[in-house]
Design brief:
By secondary structure, this protein is an alpha+beta fold. The chain contains 9 helices and 7 strands; from the N terminus they run E-H-H-H-H-E-H-E-H-H-E-H-E-H-E-E.
């Protein structure tokens, strides 16, 4: 079956969220952040969160891409990717990648982003019965390490990569990785990733090297086990 990459659009959000939860269901952190939250509440929260990512794309460098079944397309994948008609050719997402491309905000944009972030925290907090303490500890650690290893004005970030379990080990993840890395290499830029244990070996094969890690004892925050994120950095060209 041929596969192609397209820009993701808001209409893809239900597929993307389903892929995310299926692909990361065994992840120690993801599985214990909202263990007691009803599925429909979790779904509504995720729909809003990803929808906001689209709305904030001018302030966060977002590039969200999907892989779909390419059967029946008459033009080449790159032509499709950059076509304005992709919304009319929408097909079920089989995999997705959330990339952050380099960006620089003006003082006015920084103030706008800070204001919108404050409003978001007040109007759309984590659902009731979420593990707020674990959330705060884990994401504070991620922010600290990201600031240490990544320059958002120059570097790329592969933030999330998810493949539907039914389509894993068919090269879809590699397609999405290669797409972003090609842009990073053309810009002679580094690429950063916070790798889950499941994706660690795949990222090493694409030229990333481990530079740090985050380890959180979830037992301290009402859960069980240890969540580990390997922090990887890739030089331009994968050298």
């Amino acid at each position: 079956m041929p596969y192609i990459i397209l820009p993701a659009i808001p209409a893809d959000l239900p597929d993307i969220i389903a892929i995310y939860h299926a692909a990361f269901k065994d992840d120690p952190f993801v599985g214990q952040l909202m263990p007691n939250v009803p599925p429909e509440v979790k779904q509504a929260y995720d729909m809003h969160w990803y929808g906001r990512e689209f709305e904030m794309s001018e302030l966060n460098g977002l590039r969200l891409r999907k892989v779909v079944d390419g059967e029946g397309y008459d033009c080449c994948p790159r032509q499709i990717r950059h076509s304005t008609v992709h919304s009319r050719l929408a097909r079920k997402s089989l995999a997705f990648a959330k990339w952050q491309y380099p960006y620089t905000l003006t003082p006015e944009q920084k103030a706008k982003k800070a204001r919108l972030d404050r409003i978001e925290e007040l109007e759309h907090p984590l659902p009731a019965r979420s593990n707020r303490q674990l959330y705060d500890v884990f994401f504070a650690a991620l922010r600290e390490k990201k600031a240490k290893w990544m320059d958002e004005s120059k570097d790329y970030l592969l933030h999330i990569l998810g493949v539907s379990p039914a389509h894993q080990r068919q090269g879809l993840g590699a397609m999405l990785i290669s797409e972003g890395l090609a842009d990073a290499d053309r810009s002679n830029a580094k690429t950063y990733i916070e790798a889950s244990p499941a994706g660690y070996e795949l990222y090493l094969r694409h030229g990333w090297k481990q530079v740090d890690e985050i380890e959180v004892d979830i037992g301290k925050y009402g859960g069980h086990g240890v969540a580990t994120e390997k922090l990887l950095l890739r030089e331009p060209g994968g050298d």
